[in-house]
Structure formats: structure tokens, C-alpha cells
Write a structure and sequence with these properties.
The structure is a single chain. The chain is an all-alpha fold. Helix content is 75%, strand content 2%. The protein contains 22 helices and 4 strands. Helix 1 packs parallel to helix 8 (146-175) and helix 14 (327-342) packs antiparallel against helix 15. 52% of the residues are buried. It is a multi-pass membrane protein.
Length: 469
């Protein structure tokens, strides 16, 4: 990418703040799906399989949207390079707002299919943001600090997913009850509020002076990127990661409602769901420090301080006592230890985190009560760096095929649509607890991908990527 207008440090602060707000809302609304699933399941008397159509519609839009974008780019040229990142981001925000507005007729008609249509449109809007906003943040300043900026915005994206179960659950299950009951109308006002915030963000983005960028790289035709084995394996790695993360989050509230687990009502279980997503936020902050160029001793100190600060932030958000959340400290310590053992190597860290998640899931499957719940909540911490590490390893050494490889990796977010749907079917047939064998299998594949990359690919903080053929 080439900058058409020089970006000064001070001039990039306001655009970066604007993008951070956007990432926050993006994460918040995405995580609202976990609140919607049990809500709609009860309202429309759905099976687990049918309720998972929520994620199928939402994340299926990522695949359809990115496929359309890929085909348009292939035959007509990159649309974002033609219209610019600013217009691309604004169009994504507006389309997302339209999706939120569609919840009004969906709630008024009380038709499940209309809810799914609204989620599909919302997903299409977020697809455009996935393609444009991530790349734009990396361009807002010097190349050497691009990773830091992206980690910052993604951390606020995780902050959105952390408070969504608490605040969003309060909106639906408490504030906007109809005659004291949760009905389809309970979603009408909250999503209109979300639409209003998104429209306000679109207006702010249109008024803020954003630096413009253009690309002079030649476009590659064909599917040359698929000749790289690490990309082919990485595509399925992204598929498995997103599918496992979304599938676990989607079933957590129903899992906690089981009599032999915790028998918690939705108004309380949403707080534990916030811990699951809050773990991803903590892990991303720790990952940003671990993957920095600091000395190992200073890294450890900063990681401990960051973990304590973010844990206190999460604790202040959830409506739980210290005794109810203190178990989470054990997983944070385990997370720090895994980062230290990983020694800033993406493949090694990926293997460690995938292995830990497999163990945690198996503990949840074969245990009862709190011993079944606590391990599965700790998985969020070890999900934190998986997407970025898989992505980095998958596109390593692609050269002129990087853009093409990136678009294929975005399509793999389809895992968030299919894996939860399959897991929902398993929950209907073999029970929720046993359905968690599926995400365990997903993490097993990620572990295999990490082991492959440890032998074939070397990614260093200060050296170019090298692929061992």
C-alpha cells in the first residue's frame, strides 16, 4: 500500500479514536447474538439446531459478502481501492445500521425468518468493515507500529464483546420487558438504539478528516495463493477457530441453565458469559505485550500489571462477587505462563493455547457443576491470539499473493456459521455437554496446524518471514 497523503503522528490520533469507537460497537453488536439465541429459542420454541440459525445467518453473510467482494475484485478490480477506505467504512457502518433497523419489523411481526434476514444484512455490513477497517487501522501511521494500533482497536472490540452480555442482557431481559415478560418486542428498542449509534458513527466518520490511501500493486489473477500449503491449512484453521469460539459462546447460557451444571437463569448467566468474552480481551492485551520487542523480564512485569488492571475492569462490569470470579485468576496465571513458554513465537504459542483449550473442554465435558463451568469460561483467554496468529502464519511467504490469501481467509469466517449449526444439532441429539467435543476437535486441528508451522515456517519480530520448503 502506498500513502497518497503523508500521515503525521498528531493527524492520525482523531482517526484512530474514531476507528476504536467503531471497533467497540462492532464487537458489542456481534456478541449480542449470544443473548439473542436463548431469547429467540424460548420465544419461538426452537430446537438447538434451529436456534443456531442465528449464527448461520450472521456469519454466513461474512462468507457470501467476502465471496462477492473477491469476485468483483477479480473481474472489475478492488472496489475499496477505487472508492477509498473512508467511503468503504461508511458504507459498511450504514449497512450495519440498516440491519439493526430491520429488527423493528422482525419484532413487530414476531417472525423468526425476519430476525434471520436482519442478522444477515447486519453480517454483510460487518463483512465490509472486516475488509476495510482492519486494513485501514494498520495504515494510520508508521509501519513499525501497525501491529500495536491493530491490537489496540481489537482490544476495544473485545471490550465490546465483554460488556454486551451484561448491558445487552439488561436491555433485553430487564429494561424493555413487555408486561413483565420477555417478548419479541424486547429486541425492538435496543436494536434501534444500536442503529442510532451506528448512524451517528457514520456521520462522525464522514466529518473527520481521514488520510487517503491507494494501492499501486499489480493484481494477480487465478488462485495462485492456493499453491502455498500454509495458506490452505490456515483457511481451515480460521474456519475451525471462529466456529469453535462462536459455538461455545452461543451455547454457554443454555449450558449454565442445565440442572447438573449450575441451573442459572439467563439474567445471571449473562455475567459469566461476559467472563468468557472478557478473557479474550485480557489475552489480547497480554498478547500485545508478549509479542512486543521488550526484554523478557519487563514483558513479564507489564503482563502481570496489565492482567490485574483488565481483570479489575472486567470484575467491575459483571454483576458477580469476587468469590464468584476468583477462579478466573487461576486461568489468567496459566495464560501468562503459556505466553512465557511460547517466547513470542506465533506457531509455538498457537500450539500451546490450542492444547490448553482441548484440555479445558474435556474437563468441562466430563465434570459436573462449577467444575464443568469454570474450565470452559477460561477458554476465552486462550482464544485471544488465535485469529491473529493463524492469519499471520497462513499468509507468511505469500508475496504478491498476500491480498488474495487474505480474502480467502476472511471467507473462512464461514466457520462461525456452520460449526455452531452442527454443534446445535449435536446438542439436540447427544446433549449440550457432549456437543463440546466438536469445538475440541476444532482446536485439535489448530494444534496440528501450529505444529506444521513450527517445522515449516519461521516468523520473527525483527526479521522477514521465511518459509522452509
Amino acid at each position: 500500500m502506498e500513502i497518497s497523503t503523508p500521515v503525521k503522528k498528531n493527524s492520525s490520533i482523531i482517526p484512530l479514536i474514531t476507528m476504536t469507537l467503531l471497533f467497540f460497537m462492532w464487537g458489542f453488536i456481534t456478541c449480542m447474538n449470544d443473548i439473542l439465541i436463548p431469547h429467540l429459542k424460548v420465544l419461538f420454541s426452537l430446537t438447538f439446531l434451529q436456534s443456531m440459525l442465528v449464527q448461520f445467518a450472521f456469519f454466513g453473510a461474512y462468507f457470501i459478502g467476502s465471496l462477492i467482494y473477491f469476485l468483483v475484485s477479480y473481474y472489475k478490480g478492488d472496489p475499496i481501492n477505487k472508492v477509498g477506505y473512508k467511503k468503504g467504512i461508511i458504507s459498511g457502518v450504514i449497512l450495519s445500521a440498516v440491519g439493526c433497523c430491520l429488527f423493528y419489523p422482525a419484532a413487530s411481526l414476531s417472525v423468526y425468518g425476519v430476525f434471520l434476514a436482519a442478522l444477515f444484512v447486519l453480517g454483510l455490513g460487518f463483512t465490509i468493515l472486516q475488509i476495510t477497517a482492519n486494513a485501514y487501522v494498520t495504515l494510520l501511521g508508521p509501519e513499525e507500529s501497525a501491529s500495536s494500533r491493530l491490537n489496540l482497536t481489537q482490544a476495544f472490540n473485545s471490550f465490546g464483546t465483554t460488556i454486551a452480555p451484561v448491558l445487552g442482557g439488561h436491555l433485553i431481559y430487564t429494561l424493555f420487558l413487555v408486561d413483565g415478560k420477555v417478548t419479541a418486542d424486547s429486541t425492538r428498542i435496543p436494536y434501534l438504539i444500536f442503529a442510532g449509534i451506528l448512524i451517528a458513527l457514520a456521520i462522525i466518520i464522514s466529518r473527520v478528516k481521514l488520510p487517503s490511501f491507494s494501492s499501486e500493486e499489480s493484481e494477480e489473477r487465478g488462485l495462485g495463493a492456493l499453491k502455498f500449503p500454509q495458506l490452505k491449512m490456515g483457511i481451515f484453521g480460521i474456519f475451525c477457530y471462529v466456529g469453535a469460539e462462536v459455538g461455545i459462546g452461543s451455547l454457554l447460557i443454555s449450558f449454565m441453565a442445565q440442572e447438573d451444571i449450575m441451573n442459572l437463569p439467563e439474567v445471571l448467566s449473562k455475567n459469566y458469559l461476559a467472563l468468557y468474552w472478557g478473557g479474550a480481551m485480557i489475552g489480547r492485551f497480554l498478547g500485545a505485550i508478549s509479542l512486543s520487542g521488550l526484554a523478557q523480564g519487563r514483558k513479564l512485569i507489564y503482563m502481570i500489571l496489565a492482567a490485574a488492571a483488565v481483570y479489575l475492569l472486567v470484575f467491575s462490569i459483571v454483576d458477580l462477587t469476587f468469590a464468584q470470579t476468583s477462579f478466573f485468576i487461576i486461568f489468567i496465571v496459566l495464560n501468562i505462563v503459556a505466553f512465557v513458554i511460547g517466547k513470542s513465537a506465533p506457531a509455538r504459542t498457537l500450539v500451546l493455547f490450542a492444547g490448553v483449550n482441548i484440555v479445558l473442554l474435556l474437563l468441562s465435558v466430563f465434570s459436573k457443576g462449577s467444575m464443568a463451568l469454570y474450565p470452559i469460561l477460561g477458554i476465552g483467554l486462550f482464544n485471544s491470539i488465535m485469529f491473529s496468529n493463524i492469519y499471520t502464519l497462513a499468509i507468511s511467504g505469500l508475496g504478491k499473493y498476500v491480498s488474495q490469501g487474505s480474502s480467502l481467509l476472511v471467507m473462512a469466517i464461514l466457520g462461525g456459521a456452520l460449526v455452531p449449526l452442527i454443534q446445535g444439532g449435536l446438542a439436540d441429539s447427544v446433549g449440550i455437554q457432549n456437543s463440546f467435543f466438536l469445538p475440541a476437535a476444532c482446536y485439535a486441528y489448530i494444534l496440528i496446524f501450529g505444529l506444521y508451522c513450527m517445522k515449516r515456517i519461521q516468523v520473527s519480530l525483527d526479521k522477514p518471514v521465511r518459509v522452509n520448503h
